[in-house]
Structure formats: structure tokens, C-alpha cells
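Customer ticket, subject: "Can you confirm the structure for GAF domain-containing protein/sugar diacid utilization regulator?"

Message body: Hello, I'm evaluating your service for our small team and ran a test protein. I'd like someone to confirm that this is what the system normally returns, since I don't have a reference to compare against.
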Amino acid sequence: MSSPVEFLELLAREAAAVEFEGPLVAARAAGLPAERLAELEQAKVVALRVRALLARRRRRETELSGLYDTASDLAGLRDLDDVLRAIVHRARILLGTDVAYMTLNDEERGDTYMRVTDGSISARFQRLRLELGDGLGGLVAQTGTPYVTSNYQEDERFRHTGEIDGGVGEEGLVAILGVPLRLGSSVIGVLYAANRSARPFAREEVSLLVSLAAHAAVAIDTARLLAETRAALAELSAANSTIRAHSSSVERAAAAHDRMTALVVRGGGMEDVAAAVTEVLGGALLALDAEGRRLARVGEIEEPDRADIVEAVAASRTEGRSVRRGPLWYAAVVAGAENLGALVLRPDDELVDADQRILERAALVTALLLLFRRTVAEAEGRVRGELLDDLIARPLRDADALRARAHRIGVDLDAPHVLVAVGDDAFAETGSARQRVLSWATTYASTRGGLAAARDGRVVLMLPGQDAGGAARAVARDLSRLTGRPVTAGASGPSTGPASLAVTFAEAERCLSALGALGRAGQGASTAELGFVGLLLGAVGDAGDRDVSRFLTATVGPVVDYDARRGTALVKTLEAYFGVGGSLARAAEQLHVHVNTVTQRLERVGQLLGADWQRPERALEVQLALRLHRLRTPAR
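Agent reply: Thanks for trying us out. I re-ran your input and got the following:
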């Protein structure tokens, strides 16, 4: 008999994806009921999702292992050629390309030459030299920016030459990715991964190749430092103490790099990285995220002004090195073109060049940790989103099971919550913009102890509290800032317990529809604030706004237009008149005018709307139109 356990057995033996259909095929052949088939189908989907996650983890472990092996090569650097060949070979294996190679700049000749190749079969290709700006590699070397092309021969973004095109054609390369080897603010060469057939290069692959290029640059720089040290020892015996200090700093940098790499492998945190840096360099260190919030602090160090941080991080990113501002050193924490934060160091002693590289390597490790933390957060966000999706679904499944799931992630379903539905105006045409809004909503809800999910193409948030209107306005305001366009949000609640959440969500959606019908796009409100009009308009649909506008024009349009042209207060007088039950005296008292003034204004209303405007059926329509008019212009 097929059961979900079989999928666990398939996962345990790392079965191929096609084998996960086996239990379902067997279940259908056995004639199991539809409920059991649906359960098995769900178990299969979850198992395949776990299988994909494990595959991604294995791939990430392989990449980290490759980076760790490269770091170990650098720590025990003896032969530069061996290290560079190892880096190029690992680039080819980790990215799964046909060819990988490296070019270095020739300062004397002012061009770039082929240094190391792996997987190449063309002697002509292996002897290529590129002028700065020629070909993809020349452009990368000149600009210091990664470039990728899916079809080299047809790409017109860079300058083609017969020699380069001939070598690339003889090698049979089609898709090429090139990243710069940066040494400080200078580009000393280019590391490539290339394929003999068309293929895209994902952002993660670009980041991985950038990391390997950074290791290669460190290897070249370390070899340069060792060569300079040997020459200094041979030439200047009097500078023996200085050379020893310099050699010690290089060894300290390699040891620190090994230690920080080990931290990544065993799952260390930001506090561990900060402690490792301060133990090696001394002083105090502050780790900040992209918004300037503190991630970790070791030792006594004051947080710099936000403006100083922004300027120093921008300079560090531009120069590709740590920078000094007064007594503090800043190193930008980046992943590709994305700014993730900064490390701020107050050292006890002056930093030498190798010490700066320790700080820069710590920034690279920090970027890896933050990216990993983001991946974990995204996985948690999916779990929270699935819970909210189940909570607002109809019919509601096992309430106790839902409570248990919520408890595991720190959410108390029996506490008061409000539901906020976000309008489609939050999304641009692209899927990335929709994902950005969902990511924001997930973070916004989780930091407040709530949940967020995407349902039927719409984002919904469940937030603890009782002020539904305030929550809707806050979401609309913050999302408008994020997207750069007005965002509408409808809310309902508070709701207590799993059983009422689906009803509350439906009310929030009706509130959202009512706001659109009332012409209040870009605002936030709750069902309680709209009253019976919100209930009436919630089911109107997409045509609601046009219907409301036509109704207002036909019912009180002449009065509204008259006020707009003459600056009179007929609408206000009508609202007061109906609000006091048709009493002229009480309306005059409320408006702070004479009774005769109220009478004259109502006579003017009769001229504009017709003599029968006070008949019961007409009066009801006028009162409803006045209410709709006020809701469409809440600023009044």
C-alpha cells in the first residue's frame, strides 16, 4: 500500500526525480480513493521540494568547499602557477563550463595576455593577447566590471578584432563570462568561464566567479609580497626587522583568512567574525547592515554618524579596498553590485597593507554570512506564508494543528489580529517587483509577530493588534514609499482564533474593493471606517468606481458643481439638515447661521435638484450620495 513514508525512503536513497511518481502510479493502480491520492500528491510535491533544497545545499557546500580549498592553497602558497591553475580548474568545475581561463595585464606592453587555461584545445587561443578595450576580456580589464555574453560572435557591446574572433572561433566558444581580478582599485587581469554552446550565467555563478577572482588576486598579490620580501632580504640586511614584521603580517592575514573561512563552513555568526578580526588586529570592531543597524560589536567603539558611514562605504566600494577616516577604518560589505553593510574597525596600532586585507577578507566573509542568513529567512518566510494561506482558506482545516504550527514560529492565533489586503496597484508589470513587495510584506509582518502571504495574486498580511484602520494606513504608506507609487490597502478585524480569520480576510478584500469603488486608490482604511457603504460597495466589482461616479453625478452633481463654482455651502447644509432629522432650527444652530439662511439654501437645492428632492425615496438617494461624496473626499 502506497504511503507518504515511501517518499522519505526515496529521499534517503537520493532517488531521481522521476522515481517520485512511483508511489502515485502504484496508488492509482491499487484504486485508492481520491482523498488518499491527493494526500500522496501533496507528499510528493513536498518531497520534491525537499529534494531540490537538498540539491541546492549540496551545490552550495561544493562551492564553499572549493573556496575553502582555494583559501588553503593561498595559506600554503609555494608556487603561484600551481595556485592559479587550481583556481581556474575549480572555476571550470564549480560553474560546469567547457573552458575556464585567466588573463593578466602586461604593464610594460599595455595589453592583456593569456596566463592559464583549463579545458582549452586551441593553441591559437592559448597564445591570444588583447588590447585594453578589445573583446569581452579587454573590456572587463579596462572597466573593471563583470561582463557576460550568451553569443560572443554576435555581441556588439565590445570591439571585435580578427585575431581575437579567430581564436575564440577556433576554440568554439559561444557563451562567455568574465570578471575582473581586482587588486585594490586596480584591475590586474580577468578570470573567465566559457561554454561551447549558448547558456545563461546566473547571478550566483557571477558572484562565485568574482570570489574565485578575488582569491586569484590575493594569490598574485601574496606571491608579489613574498618576492619583494626575498629581494629585500637579499639586498638589505639592515631592514631585517621590517621584513620580519611584514612577513608576520602576511602570515597573520593567511591565518585569519583560514579562520574566517572555517567559521563560514561550520556555521559561525557575525559575533564570531568580529571576535576573530579583533583578536588578530586588536582594537574594537562594529558590524553594520545596509540600513546602518548594528549586527555585532566587539570592544568599545562609538557608532559613527550615518552620513560618515555612507561616504566611507561609498569610497570603499569605489576603491575596492578598506578606507581610513580619522581613527576608524571602513570596509564595504558587498555581494556583486549589492550593498549589504560595512565593517568599522578602530585598531590599537597602525594597519599595514596585509592587515587591511584581513579586514577586507572579513568583509567578504560577512557578505557570505548575510547572504546565507537571507536564504534562511526566505525559507522561513515561505513557511509563514503557507500557514497564513491555510488559515484564510475555506473550509478551515484542523484548528488545533494550525495553532501548533503557529506556536512553533512564535505566533499566538488566539490573540487579536487584523487582516490587511494589499491592492494590485502595489505591483509593477514584472514578476521581480511582485516578489519584492511580497518579500517586504514578509519581513514587515514577521518583525511584528505576524504573517504574510500571496493569495490569488494579491498580498495579504495578518498583524497582531486591534486597530485595523491604522494597520491599513501604515501598510499603504510604507509600501507606497517602497514602490514609488500610491498603494491601496483594505483591512478588517480584530479577529481572534483560527476560525474567524477567513471571514476577516474576506471582509478586508471587500474593504479593498470598496476603496477602489469610492475612488480612494492609494489610501488605507478598514471596514469599520467605511460603515454600511463599505459593505454595500464591497461586492460591486471592477465597475464600482464608474457606477458610483454616475450615481453621484445624477443625484447630487448639480449641488456639488454649484458649490465648486460659487464657493457656497449647499452640500454642508444638506448634510446638517439630514443629520438633525430635517429640523431647520437645529440645522441653523449647527451651521452657526440664521434659520432664514438655511431656508434660502434649501430652496436653492430644490431649484438644482427638483421640487421632489425631499420625497422619501429621493431623500434616501440624496443622503446616500452625500455619504458617498464624503467618503470619496475623506480629507474634508
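A couple of notes from the result: Confidence is low (pLDDT under 50) at residues 538-545. The CA atoms of residues 179 and 380 lie 33 Å apart. Feel free to reply with more questions.
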